Amino acid sequence: MDMLWNGWGDPAKAAPLPETVTGLLHDLLGVKPRSTPVLGLEDVRPPAVTAAPAALRALAAAVGDEHVRTDAQSRVRHTRGKSTPDLLRLRAGDVSDVPQAVVLPAGHDEVLDVLRACAAHGLAVVPFGGGTSVVGGLAPQRSAFVALDLRRMNGLLDLDPVSRTAVLQPGLRAPEAEALLAAEGFTLGHFPQSFEWATIGGYAAARSSGQASAGYGRFDEMVLALTLATPEGTIETGRAPRSAAGPDLRQLILGSEGAFGVITSVTVRIRPLPEVRVYEGWRFGSFEEGTAALRRLAQDGPRPTVLRLSDETETFIGLAQPDAIGADLASGGAGCLAIAGYEGTAEDTAYRRERAAAVLADCGGTPAGAEPGERWAHGRYSAPYLRDALLDAGAFAETLETAAFWSRIPDLYTAVRTALTDTLTRAGTPPLVMCHISHVYENGASLYFTVVSAQGEDPVAHWTPAKHAANEAVLAAGGTISHHHGVGTDHRDWYVREAGPLGVSALRAVKRRLDPDGLLNPGVLLPTD
Amino acid sequence: MDMLWNGWGDPAKAAPLPETVTGLLHDLLGVKPRSTPVLGLEDVRPPAVTAAPAALRALAAAVGDEHVRTDAQSRVRHTRGKSTPDLLRLRAGDVSDVPQAVVLPAGHDEVLDVLRACAAHGLAVVPFGGGTSVVGGLAPQRSAFVALDLRRMNGLLDLDPVSRTAVLQPGLRAPEAEALLAAEGFTLGHFPQSFEWATIGGYAAARSSGQASAGYGRFDEMVLALTLATPEGTIETGRAPRSAAGPDLRQLILGSEGAFGVITSVTVRIRPLPEVRVYEGWRFGSFEEGTAALRRLAQDGPRPTVLRLSDETETFIGLAQPDAIGADLASGGAGCLAIAGYEGTAEDTAYRRERAAAVLADCGGTPAGAEPGERWAHGRYSAPYLRDALLDAGAFAETLETAAFWSRIPDLYTAVRTALTDTLTRAGTPPLVMCHISHVYENGASLYFTVVSAQGEDPVAHWTPAKHAANEAVLAAGGTISHHHGVGTDHRDWYVREAGPLGVSALRAVKRRLDPDGLLNPGVLLPTD
């Protein structure tokens, strides 16, 4: 099934907002219904293909005629990713970032052939997995490019139950990967919000982090070996879990966002399927109090598998459990909701749950029972659907995220909230800014912000200054420009400042060596020359 | 205190071998006492300094006259590292790898000044921490070089008890780092065999792994931020524990072995000092059985803080507890000795110890009580002293190590043992080859080999083919060329094969960008042009 072309997910799952929420949007934020004409995919007319017939023939020679698609619908479906600006522009019929063609290789050697064909014909290449980038990672700064769709490379190539490793192809979607592993009794344990559509290659290229990262780690911690196809050949890396043989090339490829090459296989750590999965709610009097509790568990343990905390606003609105948005409004909200989840053997989860409960209570938490945890688990992939409904209702909704060391978290939280609130208020659309911590480490945590406001006249242009102000606030307060969404084109200018001129220059030296013609995702991650 | 110039550690701690061992060496391996004249440091005459006076003046301008040393003893003390070939050549008075001068900068800016001075005068630079490299990491392929000794940069610059982070200077020796942290109630938890002499910068540059890695992780997992001084300027990286902002530059600097720049500060994760430290012994019928037990604890937990297993030979010789070598000979040995250690709070260590004991027993282990654990803890830094005593007694002794995924461990073990045994036996000096697992991961483990034999006529030349055969065996059996010693010059040619031509080429592109004149540790890690 293809994803909704100008929104998120399965079109059958789209649902309008509850009336409580539309009322709130109107009363609190001044959101007015917009009567924009609904554009169908068949109504969108992308600009004509300008690639030379010889280029298309070379691509067809690499992957077979039927795997080079130049029809309008295929091209539009590979236009940009799933950020709110991406969707708003698609909804407005703007497909200026459309690829010339969609090319579907069947394996590593075909990827190399496609790269050679593109080099010979001056076409740029955008590796395309689930298409879920929310940072402009699929919008290169070059007009003539092909989308390299990895969906045919979707196998489980090997599973080693002794080492607990699996070799996965990059186009494998996460639910299918989990199904293939589950058949052997294993799980990857990686469940980001994009889970239902994301791919293994995308996880690796963008350094994804899943909702169970407290227990299973981030994706970059799960990767043991990688194969990268580049215009200059192949890199294979990873012969041991850890090594002292030089810099870690895996960590140079992870997060390279298609700018260094196309990831064609990923060897991951797998774990036995958990016997038990239990998620429960806790309430804290304030975000500060809850943050201290999360920090204590992250530092001293025992570590839950899932650990997250919504701030007062997110708790009040009910976004902590997206399927139940608005449900808490009647109760007037009550402090901050945390979710603690435990997955594993019956014995281990029971031990950790009991000990963690004692810590959470000692930190001022009040148990809120299983219901909030179950609601969260049920709605854990729903937020992007909710965004579509908000956009449909005439609201603007977007998310952004960062991370920092613990001692910087309070200032970072205030700085980003203030930047978003001030900028949008000055622009005449005072926002709701909600936040949660969803990834914890011994030394720090992530902050994930959701912004909802009325739409400006030109909603993308209206949002841009607020996003830039948030980026500035992140850097000024000592955060990283992205904890798990990545750099793409949207964060690039701030990333360059974060990495510093010499750091960026070192990465550009790597790119020039692997991609001397600058074919791969030009302008994504690193500036073009 | 300076380390013994042609051996290991504190000269006062040197001790001859017990008679049981000298007897065994003679009877089993044909080791004969060698009557080589003992060369004193004052007897060694390094070649004259050839660096231009202007170069030395430029260095003095950078760091001050008194911090540029050209006396013979300072230069000899900075000649090579502590591999057995290094020591044998020093003992023979061979100081052909001597630096022109030893330069001691006081901080980051002075390091930059030194690099500029060296660039201006065509001198290569070898960053020098504890001088404990055992892979030729201090022996560049260029005759005119200076040793950049970091001992004056030995401070604790910052400690953040909320984030549990500390900023350490690179020349800080490990025991002093632990003392500074302990004064604030914290520990780094990094205890490699070189602990008493190694430095923080060396840990980072060489991707060190400590004996408590099962509990505290490897050094590269402890590093949160780094500052690197290069001939082209400074890189600062690390604003959060984890980030999706591009490739992880920290992991590009870690393991770069001085070839990309000089690490001038390291921000590390710290942990509260443990309330309890307890180490105990377990016996297994075979290395295979013990390996399976270690794997189960590494994969399913609970994870001890220290977890190691000696093979039958190492157990028989008693090298599992270096302070007690030979003590087990009377008992005839008994299978394989494992050490399991627990550090942490009283409650946590009690829980882990009890559960781990049940797992070890379930895997066939027999408890051997506290005595082997205490002996191991007492002798944990003694093995290099033992090597000196073996060399003094006319034996040859060296170590090498690798790592791989669990399913490859049995073949890797056999392949390396066979390569060493066959090569040295063919050369007329049948060896004892001992092995232990000392670092475990969910997906694999390290193998650490100790070789003892009679010395050949030219002991370095005699050893070289065996070492090369072991390297070939490591690569052929799917291991990494080093788990924690690093690449240096000794492993470089095999590292190049492990990383592959394109991977190496990408790293050389980084080096060229940061060190365009190839001043930094030429020939270490990466081949020179």
UniProtKB/TrEMBL annotation, chains A, B:
- Cross-referenced SUPFAM superfamilies: FAD-binding/transporter-associated domain-like, FAD-linked oxidases, C-terminal domain
Q: What is this protein called?
A: FAD-binding oxidoreductase
Similarity-based family: Belongs to the FAD-binding oxidoreductase/transferase type 4 family.
Q: Which domain of life is it from?
A: Bacteria
Please report the organism this UniProt entry assigns to the protein: Streptomyces gilvifuscus
Which UniProt key words apply to this protein? FAD, Flavoprotein
Q: Known Gene3D superfamilies for this protein?
A: 3.30.300.330, 3.30.465.10, 3.30.70.3450, Vanillyl-alcohol Oxidase, Chain A, domain 4
Which PROSITE patterns does the record associate with it? FAD_PCMH
Question: Carries keyword Secreted?
Answer: no
Q: Which InterPro entries match?
A: Alkyl-DHAP_Synthase (IPR025650), FAD-bd_oxidored_4_C (IPR004113), FAD-bd_PCMH (IPR016166), FAD-bd_PCMH-like_sf (IPR036318), FAD-bd_PCMH_sub2 (IPR016169), FAD-linked_Oxase-like_C (IPR016164), Oxid_FAD_bind_N (IPR006094), Vanillyl_alc_oxidase_C-sub2 (IPR016171)
Per UniProt, residues of the FAD-binding PCMH-type domain are: 95-273
